[in-house]
Structure formats: structure tokens, C-alpha cells
Design brief:
- The complex is a heterodimer.
- By secondary structure, chain A is mainly alpha-helical.
- Chain A is built from twelve helices and no strands.
- The longest helix of chain A has 33 residues.
- Chain B folds into two domains: 220 residues, Rossmann fold, CATH 3.40.50; 72 residues, ACT domain (Alpha-Beta Plaits, 2-Layer Sandwich), CATH 3.30.70.
- Classes of the chains: A mainly alpha, B alpha/beta.
């Protein structure tokens, strides 16, 4: 446990001693801020119209702001995660610092969990910084806290899946660009995998729908905590980390 | 401290290391010598617990490298061929990380880092980023990393590569100082390094041990017969013939230049002491003896003989 933290804290700090963390956070917050502004003004316009035309209650904050905002955040992470994970092991391989880790008295699992944790911590920092948006909503309105909290949990788990496989691809190559490209392609594919669900028959359709990363997020965004979704995400992360372990272990036999 | 028995490593059909047997005692400095691809690095990787052997056993500090790799790794300081440094870290932060990684207690990290920095003379750059340091400094940071957690065994893969002559001398001095409290295996193909630092040499060729002995004994073992080189003022054919006539002399060759003339006298291995007879002959033929040297095979020649000849 101590070793995991040793590795995680070194990697986490190295995000901040290089420009990577600042660029990612700045870009992320700029896009998120713009989206929040857009969602908010569109929401106001819709509700104003509803009021004028006496159309009843209008759109709730959850449906008008929270769900589109956090849904979009997941798309942005799809683009950002490759930049977070691509260096984790590829750079270590290229600079042969991996030898330091592999000849130190730490287990492979500790190395992998440390690496994963460092990237996950960076994502948590990014998520924490977006808390300003719901804070504004609480200040001026009365949003339902359930969907907000669940959206954060769901996003953290969903992004964790990207990170785990990003780490895997980073372990497979010395080339950071290759690692990043594979991570992006993989994430996108598992995002879109259920697009074919309607055309492959019901059994396969169900399977594809189950495999889709985004399908499991929908419950979270409605404020529903479903154990199926949590198990899906955790096993997805577990599989990525397990495969990373196999890849790193195979170094020893080459 | 290190025991290796029948160590074999195969990569598919290729045998990289073929039943190695050797032992390194506590406090010894052993040089690992061999051409590229001889199996030096493979052996080191097995010893550091990085890679399992196909057959045979290796124990370091009493622990089997296969059964208890974590304990072995805790007792080894390893400097790979390229120093494994993080360029975005400062020297002291880096050393704090590596000592922590090697399980040094929190309260002792600072003193361990300071000691390592003092030993490798890195005090002037301890707060600088490793990425901004020259190759020589990075190499020293790599060595500092290997010794910082005070391991019993040091395994150094070409420790002086990329250093300037002054630094090389410093590092060799450092390695000599480290012996005694540490047991050191050092691989190199810079041969004078072995002469300068090591107590014992293990020559590896094609995955097998070609020779292992102290340097002196290795030299005498390889050197079949002796060779003496003489500088004389003037060469006379009579004199050369007279030397050739001394029993036990294998061959005499001469070379003349304006400054001095040289005679190279090869002695048969079974011959006894003939140096006095050679000098007498040179003097009695009035050749004017200026210099009389016993030629030693340089390490390069030993190395070449060991790695090219099969019938030793």
C-alpha cells in the first residue's frame, strides 16, 4: 500500500511539474465553462418561453442543465484521457526508468495500481474544479442534489475505464502517440458499440447494449444507483489493469 | 554473497546464458567482462530479479532470486546501462523517491539521500532538475540511486560510460571505496576499468564463463612463455645470432630506427631464468644495452585470446 502511494504521488506530481496538467485542466475548464454558459442560457430561454406561453412547469434543472452538462463532460474526457495516460508507462519504457521500478522491491500490481491511481487523482482534481457549476446552481436555484452526485460518481467510474485501458496501451508501446491513439480509438469504439444493436438481432443487441460504456452512465445521470452499472464499470477497470499486469509481466520473459 | 549455480537462460531456441557457475564473496569487486551479446546483461537481469532463469539457481544475500525476488531486490542496488532518471525531477527529489521505493524508513530517507549525494559529489546540483544536467552528472545520479538505500550488493552496468576522464577517475575511486561494505559486480567492456577497480574478473563469452581469476593469475595463465623487449644502441648480426643460440630462446626479432634499435626475444614456456644470459650476451657483443623490459599482455590481448580461442 505504501509502495502504491509512493509511485502514485511521484506520477501525480510529475503531471504538475510538466505543463501537462495545467494545459489539460485549462482546456477542460474552458470547454466546460463555455458549455455550462450555453446550457444555462438555453435553459433560461426555454423556461422563459414556457412561462410566457403558459406551458406549465417547463424544464427541470436536472434535465435542462445537469444531464447535458455532465453528458458532455464524458465526451470531453474521451478526448482528454489519451493525453493523461499515454505517458504513464510508455515514457518509462522509452527512458528505461521502467528498469528502476521493475528492479525495486515492489510488486507489479503495486506499480500498476500506483500508475492508475496517479491518473485517477488528476481526473478527480479536474472533476472537483467543475463543482463550481453546481455551486452556482445551488446559489440561484434549487437543483436536485441526487443526479449531481450520481453524475460525478458515474463520470469517475466511466473515466476510470478509459484510464485503465489507456494504461494498458501505454504499457504496450514505447511510443506515446501510438498509446494515445489506441486509447482514443478504443474508448470511442466502446462508446459507440451499441449503435449496431438494432441490426444484429435481439441476443447480440442485448450484449452490445450491455457492453456500451455510455449506456451504463444513463442511470447515474438520472440519479439512480444501480449495482449492475457499478459492477460493469469496476470489472471493466479490473480487466484493463489485469491485462496491463500481463503485458508488464511478459517483459520479464523477453 | 552471490552464488550462481548452473544458471541457464534460453530465449526460444537461442541460449543466452549457458550453465554459469560463480560465486562472489562479501566485499569483493568482480568485473564482468565480455563482448557485446555475451550474456552479461542477461546474467545481471537474472541477478536483479528482473527476469527468471530457465534453469539453475542464483542466490543474492542468502535469498533465492526466483523464490523471494522482493527480498533480493531490497538488497541490491542496480545501475542499468542507461541511468534510470526522471528528467522532470530534481536530484534530491529523485533520490527521495528511489530510497522510499526501496523501503527505507521515512525518518532515515533524508540522511540516506544526503549521504548518497555526498558520496557521489552531487552537492552542487542537488536542487537542479536532472533534465538540465550533463550526461556525467546523470550517470552519477544513477550511481547515487543505486547506493542510496545502502544495499549489500551493487550491480553496475557500465558505470563510467559517458563520463569525462576526471569523472571516470572519481567514479572508479568511489567504486573502490564502496567495496568492503558493499559487494560489487561491475560489467564493462572498457578493459582498463577492470584493471583499475576489480579484484577478480569473470570473462563471459557466448553465454559461458571463459575464465575467472584474479587479474595477475589470468595474465600469467594466458601468457604462454614470456617476451622481453630490449632497446640497444647498435644491432650487430653476431650479437643477434648469439642471443638466438641461448637455450630456451624461441625467437628473436629486431627492428631498427634512427633513435634506437629494438630486440624482441620470445622465451619458451619451459625455459628457466634466461635474463642474465641475455644481458651478458648483449654486453659482451658491445651492443650498448639501454633498456630491458618484460612485456606483459595487456588486458585487451587477454580478452581477445579468451574470447576468440577455443582451446585454452
Amino acid at each position: 500500500m505504501k509502495n502504491i502511494w509512493t509511485i502514485a504521488s511521484r506520477d501525480f506530481k510529475s503531471y504538475f511539474t510538466s505543463p501537462i496538467a495545467y494545459i489539460l485542466i485549462a482546456g477542460f475548464l474552458a470547454i466546460m465553462g463555455w458549455m455550462f454558459f450555453f446550457n444555462l442560457s438555453y435553459f433560461n430561454m426555454q423556461n422563459m418561453q414556457a412561462l410566457q406561453m403558459n406551458l406549465g412547469k417547463g424544464v427541470s434543472i436536472t434535465d435542462g442543465i445537469i444531464r447535458p452538462l455532465y453528458g458532455n463532460m464524458n465526451v470531453i474526457f474521451l478526448f482528454l484521457v489519451p493525453f493523461i495516460t499515454m505517458r504513464l508507462l510508455a515514457e518509462e519504457r522509452k527512458n528505461s526508468t521502467i528498469q528502476l521500478l521493475l528492479t525495486a522491491p515492489v510488486s507489479l500490481a503495486e506499480i500498476i495500481l500506483g500508475k492508475f491511481l496517479s491518473s485517477f487523482l488528476l481526473v478527480l482534481v479536474m472533476l472537483a474544479l467543475t463543482a463550481t457549476y453546481p455551486a452556482v446552481l445551488f446559489l440561484f436555484g434549487n437543483p436536485d442534489p441526487g443526479p449531481i452526485l450520481m453524475s460525478y460518481l458515474g463520470t469517475a467510474l466511466l473515466v476510470g475505464c478509459y484510464l485503465a485501458f489507456g494504461l494498458l496501451f501505454s504499457a504496450m508501446t514505447e511510443n506515446q502517440i501510438v498509446a494515445g491513439a489506441l486509447t482514443f480509438a478504443f474508448g470511442l469504439f466502446f462508446w459507440l458499440i451499441n449503435w449496431a444493436a438494432q441490426s444484429v438481432g435481439s441476443t447480440w443487441g442485448d450484449i452490445l447494449n450491455y457492453l456500451s460504456l455510455i449506456n451504463h452512465y444513463n442511470n447515474f445521470s438520472q440519479g439512480v444507483l444501480n449495482s449492475t452499472d457499478i459492477i460493469y464499470y469496476l470489472s471493466f477497470i479490473g480487466l484493463g489493469l489485469f491485462l496491463t499486469h500481463r503485458v508488464l509481466d511478459s517483459f520479464r520473459w523477453r | 554473497m552471490i552464488q550462481v549455480q548452473n544458471l541457464t537462460k534460453r530465449y526460444g531456441p537461442r541460449t543466452a546464458v549457458d550453465s554459469l557457475n560463480f560465486e562472489v564473496r562479501r566485499g569483493e569487486i568482480v568485473g564482468f567482462l565480455g563482448p557485446n551479446g555475451a550474456g552479461k546483461s542477461t546474467t545481471m537481469k537474472i541477478l536483479t530479479g528482473f527476469m527468471p532463469a530457465t534453469e539453475g539457481t542464483a542466490t543474492v544475500a542468502g535469498f533465492d532470486v526466483f523464490d523471494s525476488p522482493i527480498e533480493v531486490k531490497r538488497n541490491i542496488g542496480f545501475l542499468p546501462e542507461n541511468p534510470p532518471v526522471y528528467t522532470e525531477m530534481s536530484v534530491e527529489d529523485y533520490l527521495r523517491f528511489t530510497t522510499r521505493l526501496h523501503g527505507v524508513e521515512k525518518s532515515r530517507i533524508e540522511s540516506a539521500v544526503t549521504t548518497a549525494i555526498e558520496k557521489t559529489v552531487l552537492g552542487d546540483v542537488r536542487k537542479r532538475l536532472i533534465g538540465n544536467l550533463s550526461k556525467g552528472y546523470r550517470q552519477r545520479v544513477g550511481i547515487a540511486q543505486a547506493i542510496a538505500h545502502n544495499p549489500q550488493v551493487l550491480i553496475l552496468d557500465e558505470p563510467t560510460v559517458g563520463l569525462d576522464p576526471k569523472q571516470i577517475i572519481e567514479i572508479r575511486k568511489l567504486i573502490k571505496e564502496l567495496a568492503g561494505e558493499h559487494t560489487i559486480i561491475l560489467s564493462t567492456h572498457i578493459l582498463p576499468e577492470v584493471t583499475a577497480t576489480c579484484d577478480r574478473v569473470i570473462v563471459i563469452n557466448k553465454g559461458r564463463i571463459a575464465a575467472q581469476d584474479t587479474l595477475d593469475r589470468l595474465t600469467t595463465r594466458i601468457q604462454q612463455g614470456r617476451i622481453y623487449s630490449l632497446a640497444v644502441r647498435n644491432l650487430t648480426p653476431d650479437g643477434i645470432a648469439a642471443i638466438r643460440a641461448i637455450p630456451g630462446i624461441k625467437a628473436v626479432s629486431d627492428s631498427a630506427s634512427t633513435a634506437e634499435s629494438r630486440l624482441t626475444v620470445e622465451i619458451l614456456p619451459e625455459a628457466g631464468e634466461v635474463r642474465d644470459r641475455i644481458t651478458e650476451t648483449v654486453v659482451s657483443h658491445r651492443m650498448g644495452l639501454l633498456e630491458f623490459v618484460a612485456e606483459k599482455l595487456s588486458l585487451e590481448e587477454i580478452f581477445l585470446q579468451l574470447t576468440t580461442e577455443e582451446n585454452l
